[in-house]
Automatic annotation (TrEMBL), chain A:
Superkingdom as given in the UniProt entry: Bacteria
Annotated TM spans: 12-36, 75-97, 117-135, 141-165, 191-217, 237-258
Keyword Membrane: yes
Family per similarity comment: Belongs to the binding-protein-dependent transport system permease family.
UniProt protein name: Trehalose transport system permease protein SugB
Membrane topology recorded in Swiss-Prot or TrEMBL: Multi-pass membrane protein
From TrEMBL, chain B:
Region spans: Disordered: 25-54
Signal peptide: 1-24
Alphabetical list of SUPFAM superfamilies matching this protein: Periplasmic binding protein-like II
Natural source organism: Candidatus Thermoflexus japonica
UniProt cross-references to Pfam families, sorted A to Z: SBP_bac_1
InterPro entries membership: Bact_solute-bd_prot1, SBP
Protein name, entry field: ABC-type sugar transport system, periplasmic component
Length: 271, 455
């Protein structure tokens, strides 16, 4: 018995280490090369330890025209997307979880169908519409599109979060004098909060990474991915590493924050 | 506890958003701070009340971050008025101009792009006729072929020559030890290049020739402007000629010594600097970093010649004004500024694109510019030079046309399919595109009245 569990442990940890390396090694290399002198990028064999560090390429990239403004735009767009999609998505998710109405499955499918539209064919009509509405080249336009893209996720995630919260709790609260609204606010919402937070941060990451709509709908008010794709696509390798790291780092930090809540995404919480 | 922390994070984020932006949507949170008194539809920053209106300059050229910064901080500095230089990929570039024209609200003033992009812009009815401006620029010694090209097949100037580039060879000096006996670096033949690659292959055991066959590589230009003209003296008309069959046989033999990683190379300066290849063909702007970073280790040379001559492709970038541009006056002033001889030399010095004016190049250019410049001049002045244009008049089909060329090369060279069969099939694809667009032949093919036809 003891021997078997020892082998099991080794296998378990070896697997975990392999998985972690699989994810972390590329990020480590990107980070390493982002802070290396230019020519180190081309050296072979590549140095795997940070023996010589340089912030030169990183500094150039960060101070280049538009990088900081684009970062700011990305943050604004992502926050706005997060708030808007939660305001619209959470009630829809709650309705899907709690109420049994005719056509419920159709609504569920319909929500998913919005994800089936390829953005590419929408690009010109979308741009034309936004130009006419005066929203073109503003972070709001991008946030609206991102909200449309993120809503299906938010609705389905929040629906499963609310499904996981027993209805009995709300009913019990109501027998003790709560109105349906206060039962929701006092009982369901606090229980759903970790899941909602995870959904919100997931939305943040979706918006942070989206490039297509952002590229076509903005010109002066670029978001970071839209800027990076035009500026770094054809830049030398060392700038691509700098830009890549600059983009990955915030998403990484956010993932570290939501790591604990991530399981709530699917309602399989161990509260 | 956890809940309270989350609420704190939420309210912090919300407060941050509200504090930094004028409220654009009503927020239902009762605890939120009251929104600023007058929500304005356009967010900050408040532009200083600048008298000269900025010119919005959208460009598919000079996209890499360093080039774009040079453009903003050095080249455009002496212009005086503010210019917003915004580089953009070709796809979104055309989409944006189309959308602005359709919506009837144009924001872009000046566009800078390749000659081929301008043909598409003209089809979208997005260009102003620049005859009056051209008249004012007539004292500039512009290369007359470029001025002619700028008319895009009409009799009006729409695209004003801006800068030019071409494709050359970049060579690591380590390769020179293996140069075949009797070969002149400035007058190589394709056969000698194959021999050279073979010598290196035998001596080092490595395949050190390189071509940009990656997804963003420009190998189709190699087929259109270098391989075919050198071996057949033309391109479209001789696509499946007996000379073409011989050419592909020769190129297949050369491929034995090409680094197989070539299918991942987009910009040859990267594998050159990493020394994965020693000899590479590519666009001057995609080689320049090798010369810039290690000028003592690399040399440039004209492309090799084939039985018919030395095919090469001059690349022309143009400037134009978008129809309905909000700042027409500023746009014209900017184009006038960018085509001044001194600006043209600054462009050469800073970003290594060559002038479109017939002016002497001063001796004090940086070393990487001199290395490339010499090879470019030798190539265009070679007695056996065959200049080939980028495909003309294909509009939105240019991408498909390029793909046919790329497919031909990949099927023959990488997949080893039978040459005659591939040429028959791909020539039919080529012809279908030419018939559909009605594109007439362009040099080096002899002029045609109808659509260009494969013989």
């Amino acid at each position: 018995m003891k021997g078997r569990s020892w082998v099991g442990d080794v296998l378990w940890y070896a697997g975990a280490i392999a998985l972690a390396l699989w994810v972390l090694a590329p990020i480590y290399l990107i980070g390493l090369l982002a802070f290396s002198p230019r020519m180190a990028v081309y050296r072979w064999p590549r140095p795997l330890l940070p023996l010589e560090l340089s912030v030169e390429t990183m500094r150039f990239f960060v101070t280049a025209t538009g990088t900081l403004a684009a970062t700011w735009n990305s943050i604004v767009v992502a926050l706005f997307t997060m708030i808007l999609s939660l305001i619209l998505g959470a009630p829809a998710g709650y309705a899907l979880a709690r109420f049994f109405f005719p056509g419920r499955e159709a609504v569920r499918m319909g929500i998913l169908m919005t994800r089936m539209f390829p953005m590419a064919i929408l690009s010109i009509p979308l741009a034309v519409t936004f130009i006419r509405m005066g929203l073109y080249d503003t972070p709001w336009a991008v946030a609206l599109v991102h909200t449309a893209m993120a809503l299906p996720f938010v609705i389905l995630i929040t629906a499963s979060v609310f499904t996981a919260i027993p209805r009995d709790l709300e009913e019990a609260a109501m027998t003790l004098g709560c109105s349906p609204l206060s039962a929701f606010l006092r009982i369901s919402l606090p229980l759903a909060l970790p899941g909602l937070a995870a959904a919100a941060l997931f939305t943040f990451v979706i918006s942070w990474n989206e490039v297509f709509a952002a590229a076509i709908l903005t010109l002066r008010q670029r978001t970071l991915p839209a800027l990076v794709i035009t500026v770094l696509n054809e830049s030398p390798l060392y700038f691509r590493f700098a830009g890549g790291f600059f983009m990955v780092a915030p998403a990484l930090v956010i993932l570290l924050i939501i790591r604990r809540y991530l399981f709530h995404l699917w309602g399989v919480s161990g509260r | 506890m956890r809940d309270r922390r989350l609420w704190t994070v939420f309210s912090l984020l919300l407060a941050l958003l509200l504090a930094c932006q004028p409220a654009a949507t009503p927020t239902p949170t009762p605890t939120a701070a009251p929104p600023p008194a007058a929500p304005s539809p356009t967010p900050p920053p408040p532009t200083p009340t600048a008298p000269p209106r900025p010119v919005l300059f959208l460009s598919t050229q000079l996209r890499p971050v360093e080039e774009a910064e040079k453009m903003r901080n050095v080249i455009l500095k002496p212009f005086g008025a503010p210019v917003e230089f915004i580089p953009e990929d070709e796809g979104p570039f055309h989409d944006r101009i189309r959308a602005e024209i359709q919506a009837g609200k144009v924001t872009v003033d000046v566009v800078g792009a390749l000659h081929g992009n301008f043909v598409t812009l003209l089809k979208d009815n997005a260009l102003e006729d620049l005859a009056a401006l051209m008249e004012r620029l007539k004292d500039r010694p512009m290369v007359s072929q470029f001025v002619e090209l700028g008319k895009l097949g009409t009799d009006r100037p729409y695209c004003i020559p801006w800068m030019q580039a071409t494709y050359i060879l970049a060579i690591n000096k380590k390769a020179l030890d293996y140069l075949p006996a009797g070969a002149d670096l400035n007058a190589l033949t394709w056969d000698q290049l194959r021999q050279w690659g073979e010598n290196i292959h035998k001596a080092t055991g490595e395949r050190k020739l390189g071509f940009p066959l990656g997804p963003k590589g420009l190998i189709h230009r190699f087929v259109q402007g270098y391989l075919y003209p050198s071996y057949t003296g033309a391109f479209v008309t001789t696509y499946k000629s007996p000379e073409a069959v011989e050419m592909w046989k020769a190129f297949k033999a050369l491929w034995e010594h090409v680094n197989p990683q070539s299918t991942t190379y987009d910009f040859m300066q990267e594998p050159l600097l990493a020394e994965e290849v020693w000899i590479a063909w590519d666009h001057t702007a995609r080689l320049v970093n090798a010369f810039k970073e290690r000028p003592n280790d690399f040399i440039a040379a004209p492309v090799p010649a084939g039985p018919k001559g030395r095919g090469f492709m001059p690349v022309l970038a143009c400037l134009g004004i978008v129809k309905g541009a909000p700042n027409r006056e500023g746009a014209e002033a900017l184009i006038e500024f960018l085509t001044r001889p001194e600006t043209q030399l600054t462009i050469l010095r800073e970003v290594a694109f060559f002038p479109v004016l017939d002016i002497p190049i001063p001796a004090d250019m940086p070393v990487h510019v001199r290395i490339e410049g010499e090879a470019v001049v030798k190539q265009s002045r070679a007695p056996d030079a065959i200049p080939a244009l980028l495909p003309v008049g294909l509009g939105g089909k240019a991408g498909e046309f390029n793909k046919v060329n790329r497919d031909t090369l990949e099927r023959i060279v990488l997949k080893g399919e039978e040459i005659e069969k591939v040429l028959q099939e791909e020539a039919a694809n080529l012809q279908a595109i030419l018939n559909e667009t009605g594109a007439a032949c362009w040099p080096p093919d002899p002029p045609s009245t109808g659509p260009c036809t494969v013989r």
